[in-house]
Every structure is written in C-alpha cells, then in structure tokens.
Amino acid sequence: MKPVRLELQGFTAFRAPAVIDFEGRRLFVITGPTGAGKSSLLDAMTWALFGQVPRVGTSVVQLIAQGEPSMHVMLEFETRGRRFRVARRAQAKGSSTVRLERRDTAGAWEPIADRTTEVKSQIERLLGMDYTTFTRTMVLPQGAFDAFLRGEPRERREILSRLIGLDVYEAARTIAGARAVDAKTRAETLRAQLASLDFATPERIAALRAQEVAAGERLQALAARYEALRSLADCWRTFETAQRGAAAAASEAEQAARASATAQQGLSAAQAWAARLQAEMATAVSQREALEYDPQAHEALRMQVSRLEQREAAQRDLDARRAALAVAEREQAEAADAASTAVQRAKQAARAADQAVVKHDAASAALLDAAASAAAARDRAAAEAATQAAIAEAVRASAQEALVRVASLEQIAARLSAGVEAERTAVAAHADAVRRAKLAARDASAATKSHAAAERGLAVAREHAEAARRANAAADLSRGLKKGDRCPICGDVLTAAPKHARADFDAAERAVAEAEGIVRESSVAASTAAAAAAVSTERVEASANALAVASAQRSAIEAEAEQMGVTPAELPREAQREAKAAKQAEARALAAEQSAGRASAVARSFEVALGSLGGTPAGDATPAVSPAALTKAVEAVTAATQGMQAARNAADLATQAADAAQREAALREQATRTAREHQRDAEARLDALGTIEGDAAAIRAALSAADEAASRATSLDAAIANARTACAAAEAATAAAQTALEAARTAEGQRNTRLQAARADEQTAAAELERVWRDVLGEGAPSRALLVAVQKQHQAEQEQATLDAGALRQSRAHAEQQREQAAATEAEIAAQEARQRLATELSQELRSDRFIDHLVREIGR
C-alpha cells in the first residue's frame, strides 16, 4: 500500500483542517517537536483504514481534539495498481460514518461500501492483511521500538514476541510435537493392521484370473446371442409399432376428415352469425340516424317546460289574486251603497230628532230653570255620555287598525307558505338530481374500473400468449435433442434430454381476442357512463339554481314579515292575536256606546224630573201657572220628552248603523287595496318569468318526445356499441373458423399421407421380422409366445453366467486388494515414520532458547 493524500480535521493536535500530500514521494521523514502530531499522522492513517489505533483501540472518541464536536480523516492510497480513498467521521456524541471509494479510468470516484463491516472486509482484501498484521508489520506503536533496542535480552525477546507475534512459533512448536506423537501412534497402528492381513499368493491370483477369462468368454457368447434376440425383439416391436401406427394413422385420418367437416360447419355458422350481426348493427345505425336526437334542444325544452310550469303557477296565483280583487271590489261597492243608505237614514232620523227637540224645548221652556242639583246631575250625565262616545270612537279606530294588520299578516303568511312549499319542492328536486348524479358518477367510476380491469386482463392474456409462443419455440428447438447433444442456443453439451412441453398458443390467442373485445366493450361503457355523469352534473347545477331562486323568494317574504316585527314562525299566531284584539276592541267600543246611551238617558230623566218639579225657568219666564196649567205643562213636557226620546233613539240607532256601514266600507276599501297590491305582486312575478313562445301542450309533448328520443338514443347507442363488439367477435370467429378449416384440411391431407406411409412401414416391418426370425430361430412362423419363452431361458442362463463371473471377479479383486492394501500400508508406515522424524526435529528447532533467541540476536545486530 502507498499513501497518496491524507486529510484530517479535529484529530488530536490537528484541530484545523490539514492536508498532507505524499504524491511523488518514495522516501520521506516526518519530523517535528514532541506533541506536534507526528504519531497522530500514523494513527490517522491506521484509524482511516481499520477504525482503531494501537494506543486507544476502538475508543477513538478520545482522539477528538478538545472542544471539537467531531473528527474527520480521509486517506487516499494506491494498491494493486488502483487508487482508493477511505473517509471516516466520528462524533463526540453520536454515531460514526465510513465510506470507501474507488477511482475509475475517467478519474471519477465510485462508491464501494459505506458500512463498517463491509469497509473492514474490503480493506483487508485490498491490503492482504488485517489490523493486527498491519500494526506488526507496517506501523509499530509509539515507544515499542525504542524499548526493544534498549531492553535486556529477555525483555527484547518479550517485546519482539509481542510486536511481530513470535508466539506463533511457540504455537508451531507445540503443534509439531503433537504431530510427531500422532505420526508415531498411526505408524504403530498400521503395523498391527499389516500383521492381521491374509496375503493372497500369486498362484491363487493367476488361477482366479484364468477362471474369470473363461467366464467372460461365456458371457460374451451369451451377450452375442442376447443381442440377436434383442434385435429380433426390436423387429417384433417395430412390427407392432408399425401396426399400431397404421391403426392410429387410420384413426387420425378419420378424425381429420370429421374435423374438416366440423370446421366447415363452424365456418358456415360463423359466417351466418356475422351476417346476422352486421344486419342488426345496420338496422340499429339506421334507426339511430333517423332518430335525429339533439341533446341541446332536449335540455332547452326541459328548461322551457320548467319556466312554463313556473309561469303557470304564477298565472294561477295571479288569477286567484284577480278573483279576490273582484270579490273585494264588489263587497266594497256593496258596503259603500249600504253606508250611503245608512247615512241618509241617519240624517233623516237626526232631523226628526231635531224637530222633537224643538217640540220638547217649547214644552219644557218653563222647566229649564229647575233645581241646581238636577241641572248638575244632568250635566254630569251628559259629560259621561260624551266621554263614553269618545272612548267608543278611539277603540273602534284601534280595532280598524288591528283588522288591517290582520289582513296584511294573513296575506304574508299565505305567500310565505307558498314560498316554503316552492322551496321544499326545489330541495326535493335538487336532492333527486344530486342522488342521480351520484349514481351516475358511481356508474362512471365502476365503468372506468371495469375498463382498467379489462385492460389488465388484456395485458395478462398477452403475457400468457407470449409465454405460450416462447414455450412452443423452446419445444421446437429442443425437438429431437438428447443427452450429449450440444444446445442450439448456448452451444453447451446437454447433460440430460431437454423436456419442453408445448403450450396451447391458439387458446392463448383466442383469450387475447376475447380480452380485446372486453376492453372495447368496457371502453364504450365507460364513455357512455361518463356522458351520463356529465348530464347529471348539469342537472344538479340547474336544480341548485332553482333552489337558490326559491330560497331567495322565501327569504324576501321572511324579511317582509320581520319588517312588521313578526318572525315567520309567529305569523299565524300573530294574525290570530291581532284578530282577537280587533274583536275585543269592537266589543269595548260597543260597551262604550251603550254607556253613552245610558248616560244620555240619565240626563234626560233629570230633565223630566226637573220638569215635574215645576221649577221656574230663568230669564223672562212667565209667572207660575195654576196647578192645572202646570199639570198640563208637565204632561206636555212628558209627552214631548217621550217623543224626543223616541226620535233620539231612532237617530242614535240610525247613526250607529251609519257608523257601522262606514266602518264596513272602510274595511272593504282596505281589503280592496290589499287585493290590488297582491295582484300587482303576482303580475310582477309573472312578468319576471318572461313570455314563452308556443303552445304549452306542444312544448310538453315535445319534451316528452325528446325524453323518449333520449332514452331511445341511449338504448340505440348501447345496442350499436354491443353490435360492433359482437361483429368484431363474429369476424374474429369467422377468421378463426376459416383458419381452423384450412388447418383441418391441411391436417387431413397430412393424416392421409401419414396413413399411406404407416401402411408401407407395416409391410416393411413384417418382411424384416420374417427375415430376422429365420436368421435367429430358423424356419417357422414368427410367434410372440415362442420369442418370450426363448428370451426367458436365455435371460436365466445369462444371469447365472453373470453371477459366476461376478463371484470370480470379486474373489480376484479381493485378493489383489489385499495385496495392494498390504503395499499401501507399508508405504503409509514409512510416511508416518518420516513425518514423526520431521515433526520431532521441527519441535526441537522451534524451542524458545534456539529460534527466537537467534531472531533476537540477528535483530540486535
């Protein structure tokens, strides 16, 4: 090994990176003061090569420079004509790394190993030595050589033994002594074996050899007759084989004829099948072309029908609003007429009441100055009547407002219910579209997976076909080869006859064709499923848009309700509460009017009482009349009062009826305004949907026809795809049937030719059998039983002669073996004695007081 370059960092004294270049130096000296790092350079090389150094062993962490986290050494060296480099890195805390590389002819470094055990074995292989040998022969540890030169002979012997491993010579001496003892023991054992051998004499061996020659000559004669009999048996077997071959050829010829007929029938059936499938496919194609299905027009019709249904719903709502408006206008007109009539009647009743008052005033002029208490009571009753009347008017106005709010809430509730129903319908439609889209996507995914599986099946079928082709090629190449022939591919001599079975390549090809058909079918199915999934996705988007519109309309209605201070869920209950409040207000108004009437009656009763008291009227009243006159005046006042009361009652009733009629008219007017607003909203919704050209029934009929056409188109497309696949399969079947027919006809001709050849071989074999029979057994007709009997007799004679010859050969071989064994034993005894002498001399020469002392003396010089 020759060092070329050494790089180290963090190694003992070399804290900073250092590079030592040995390139071009055959002899050099490393000098420097103590502690400069001279020995560290040798330690670095040793650690780079073997991962340990003599002074610390494998505890190399001690060599890391103080304060450094790691150390790194790279040694580049040459050996065996190549250049290598090994690099090691050790962490103060952590694992170590190593890498061995080799430089190629282009100068680039290629990795060899990066694991400790692999690098160790590679270094030992490259250097031809391990760590122990390296440190004893290449690098001596620091201080060991100086101690060797300055020590006493005994100490020098111990140091030398430790440095260069002289203990191996002591071990060699021990082994030599043991081998000397072993050789002596083996020699004594062999002498005992030699004495026990029964030696064969040369005369006995010669006699045995003569008997063996005679037995061999008899065996040769029997072998010659055996060969003749075997030739005769071979002729017989050849004749029987020819007979069986002729029979088999006849059977094969018949089978080939039947196979030709079957192949002809199969070709006719395949052609008829292909023609029928072509006709079916042509019919399906013509029907598909005549269908003229347009998916875009179909989708446009679907959208048009959807808008038509929305317009029809909006039109129905508008018609309902118009009918409600007509009813409201009619009821408003009736209420207005009733109010007008009631007002006229109230005016007439008021004039009648005024006239009755005039009469009453005239009759009661004398009684107007009644007592102060009666006048105050009258005044209080009148004030109470006025207050109750005002209360009745205010409460009735509140009831009117409540009725208006009830109508608004009911109208919003009805619109919200319709909006919620529309949104629920849109949600159901969207969910159905999503479900159909998921089903379509799942079908598309399943179709894609089926197509991928079909492609994998096709790849497997093609691999099997290729394997079958290779197997048949190997069988064709190995046909007729036997043991001892040369391989036609590699040229090696065959140690055994190759056995390659032929594969069914035709079946493999049919499997490939079937797999290709399946791939085509799965491709069409995957395309169809993908198109259906795309259509389903578009329908999901359309239903989502419709759902968004319905949700927006419902949200607008809810916002309108919230503007009125009512949540959508509380609309019905709020309407009921408002209606109940209106009824309660009406009841309070009626009660207030009744209270006002009662107060008026009290005031009038006070007036009557005042008149009955005969009080003097204030002002320029006439003197009191006589009691008769006062009685008449009282009676007149009483009568006037009764008439005035009746007139006022009639006027009050007429006024109440007029007020009720006016309130009813106001309510009907408000209902009419609300109905007009509803109608305008319905008209706005209808206008927002736009107009649709064409007849609705025609559009729906067109959509139904388009749906049927779509279904028919899908069915026809699938039928066309299936028909094309079937046509391809039928064409393949026709081609296969044609090929099978040609093969069958060729095979039939070959079988007929083989039959003729087999019959000729049978005649030739029969003639050869008769000739050989005459040569071996003489005249007579060939007989299988006679041949078997002769063979058995000859086999018995040959077996006996073989046993005799074998026994003689064993006896002669045993005698010769004993003779050879004796000679070999004598030679082995001499070899063991020589080995004993050599081992004894080596053991004596390797004693420590001779060989090692000689080495120490020589080194000390």
Description:
This protein is mainly α. 78% of the residues lie in helices and 5% in strands. The protein has helices at 38-50, 116-127, 131-137, 144-150, 153-164, 167-196, 202-291, 295-363, 372-478, 505-563, 571-613, 627-688, 696-777, 784-845, 848-860; strands at residues 2-9, 18-21, 70-79, 82-91, 97-103, 109-113. The chain has a six-stranded antiparallel sheet, with helices on one face. A hairpin with an 8-residue loop joins strand 1 and strand 2. Mean pLDDT is 78; it is low at 368-372 and 615-627.
The side-by-side strand order for the widest beta sheet comes to: 2-1-3-4-5-6
Count of beta strands? 6
Outline, from the CA principal axes? elongated
Provide mean pLDDT, rounded: 78
Give the termini separation: 28 Å
* pLDDT < 50 stretches: 368-372, 615-627
CA-based gyration radius: 67 Å
Can I get a quick summary?
The chain has 861 residues and is mainly α. Helix content is 78%, strand content 5%.
Keyword list:
single chain, 861 residues, mainly alpha, 6 strands
Write the layout of secondary structure elements.
Blueprint: E1 2-9, E2 18-21, H1 38-50, E3 70-79, E4 82-91, E5 97-103, E6 109-113, H2 116-127, H3 131-137, H4 144-150, H5 153-164, H6 167-196, H7 202-291, H8 295-363, H9 372-478, H10 505-563, H11 571-613, H12 627-688, H13 696-777, H14 784-845, H15 848-860
Antiparallel strand pairs: 1-2, 1-3, 3-4, 4-5, 5-6
